[in-house]
Amino acid sequence: MAVLLVECPDQRGLVHAISGVLLRHGCNVVGNQEFVDAASGRFYMRTEFDGPEVSATGQQLVAETQASLPIGAQVRLAQPGPKRIVVLVSREHHCLGDLLIRHQFGGINARIEAVISNHALLGDLVRKFEVPFHPVPADGLDRMAHEAAVRGILDEIQPEFLVLAKYMRVLSPDFVRRYPSRIINIHHSFLPAFVGAKPYHQAFQRGVKVIGATAHLVTDDLDAGPILVQQVIPVDHTHAAADLVRAGRDVEQFALAQALRLVFEDRVFLAGNRTVIFD
Length: 279
Fold this sequence. Notes:
It is a single chain. By secondary structure, this protein is of the alpha/beta class. The protein folds into 2 domains: 77 residues, ACT domain (Alpha-Beta Plaits), CATH 3.30.70.260; 195 residues, 3-Layer(aba) Sandwich (Rossmann fold), CATH 3.40.50. It has 8 helices and 13 strands. The strands form 3 sheets. A 7-stranded mixed beta sheet has the order 7-6-5-8-9-10-11, sandwiched between helices. Helix 4 links the parallel strand 6 and strand 7. Helix 3 packs across helix 8. It is globular. 33% of the residues are buried. The mean pLDDT is 93.
């Protein structure tokens, strides 16, 4: 099964035009979702289909679909199969461990090609899953030199996506531009409050009543990229700071896994700094 993704200015007859191209190619639509953003006048459509020799005729199908739509249409054909990803981590194990287990048992539509870390701490965990581990210490290096070392590994692997599983380093704009809309990050949802070290301890001191996590695409604007998933759980006065940390780790794992599922199943459209997601 393949997925056709279309974004274009809205007008009458778009669904008919797109489905007509698929019909002429002998394809069968097995799932379809569409959405019109009234504010921007943009049309979004995600169509799952199967048919003869999709891989061989994909470029022609895309070209014919493009020709049937208004000027400025964006058409993409997503082929089935796992995405090739690299995971970047620092010291925290919870999101990485969850991803490695899901990867081991086919729980995400991706193949982890490598794990890169600025610390060696998690190497034993990664190697238990027979995934290559690359420690790239940052000690004594400025940010540009450290990123150059990381890019050297990435250039050899050529991953489709990068996943920041609690990677506690700020990426430079130049690094981010090399992977446009292809870096996925997870962090607590307190931002812009409780910035810096020990955010859950800060939250405990303020007596917060809800904690959560945000998974988003990375842009130059640090943690303000297009949001993919947000999850929250209630807490109360009986939760100590350590309880908040544990709960935060759980919700971060879940939010990141959900975001990766959406991205790796080609369910996400970008709409400026917003997302249109067909779940």
